[in-house]
């Protein structure tokens, strides 16, 4: 590894560890593991950036394409796809910066060329510096301004020549809109009738239209609750029971059972992989 790359990654990791040491919501997360993790059925509601700071990451896309990322490399993944990931430490723990984008972050007003499911960026010292500024700026700015800096990151990638970046923001179906609504209302139990009412339709129409998109309301609820659970396990030190309750499950055993069915690892196995003494951060509801 070049000396410049080594120091740029080290500097970004130090900034991330400092900022995520508090429990305040942030528009990014620092994920860590000290032993190998393999997680399946990770359903992406929004485009996501994954930047590997140390270790290695392997991603299997829904279409069968496999991508390997080494430290300093990052990937932008399109929404509306399910992936399998392997997070692998080497002689050091695995660290990765995760940033979730939202529909309003989609870059516009630039020449668009091509369609893609993902973009892999090799190490770029300027982009790494930009990420470091994003991390520190987000820590001191109000959440209402986070969108501007996410847009800046997406735009930066676009003007560097990846003009197909716009295609990572795939057209939103009703299931995506319902999932996003469930994300922001996860702390309040909400009925199927209330959800249907929010989207201006009857409950039976809501269920029929979701079935047309090959999903169900229960599946979307499970995806949101378990996705939040995975995020909290990877980025906080909260007890598993507290995470289960926060995700809407009445018991740790039920949460663990559904979690393993979905991701192929139990919450205890994921937590066992975590480093001790790290801080908390937030991605899923961190907009």
From TrEMBL:
Keywords: DNA-binding, Plasmid, Transcription, Transcription regulation. It holds the Pfam family HTH_18. Coiled coil: none annotated. The keyword ATP-binding does not apply. It comes from the Bacteria. The keyword Transcription applies. GO terms for molecular function: DNA-binding transcription factor activity; transcription cis-regulatory region binding. This is Helix-turn-helix transcriptional regulator. The lineage of its organism: Bacteria, Pseudomonadati, Pseudomonadota, Gammaproteobacteria, Alteromonadales.
């Amino acid at each position: 590894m070049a000396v410049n790359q080594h120091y740029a990654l080290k500097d970004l990791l130090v900034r991330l560890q400092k900022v995520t040491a508090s429990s305040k919501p942030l528009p990014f997360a620092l994920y860590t593991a000290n032993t190998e993790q393999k997680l399946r059925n990770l359903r992406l509601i929004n485009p996501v950036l994954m930047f590997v700071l140390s270790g290695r990451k392997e991603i299997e896309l829904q279409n069968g394409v496999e991508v390997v990322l080494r430290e300093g490399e990052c990937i932008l993944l399109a929404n509306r796809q399910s992936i399998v990931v392997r997070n692998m430490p080497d002689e050091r723990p695995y660290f990765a910066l995760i940033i979730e984008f939202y529909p309003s972050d989609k870059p516009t007003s630039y020449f668009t060329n091509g369609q893609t499911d993902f973009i892999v960026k090799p190490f770029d010292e300027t982009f790494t510096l930009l990420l470091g500024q994003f991390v520190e700026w987000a820590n001191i700015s109000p959440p209402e301004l986070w969108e501007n800096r996410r847009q800046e990151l997406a735009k930066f990638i676009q003007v560097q020549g990846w003009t197909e970046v716009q295609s990572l923001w795939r057209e939103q179906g009703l299931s995506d809109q319902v999932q996003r609504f469930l994300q922001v209302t996860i702390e309040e139990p909400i009925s199927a009738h209330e959800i249907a009412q929010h989207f201006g339709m009857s409950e039976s129409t809501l269920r029929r239209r979701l079935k047309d998109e090959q999903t169900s309301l229960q599946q979307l609820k499970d995806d949101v609750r378990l996705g939040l659970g995975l995020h909290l396990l990877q980025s906080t030190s909260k007890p598993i029971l507290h995470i289960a309750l926060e995700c809407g499950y009445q018991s740790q055993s039920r949460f663990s059972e559904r979690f393993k069915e979905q991701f192929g690892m139990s919450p205890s196995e994921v937590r066992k992989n975590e480093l001790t003494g790290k801080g908390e951060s937030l991605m899923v509801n961190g907009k």
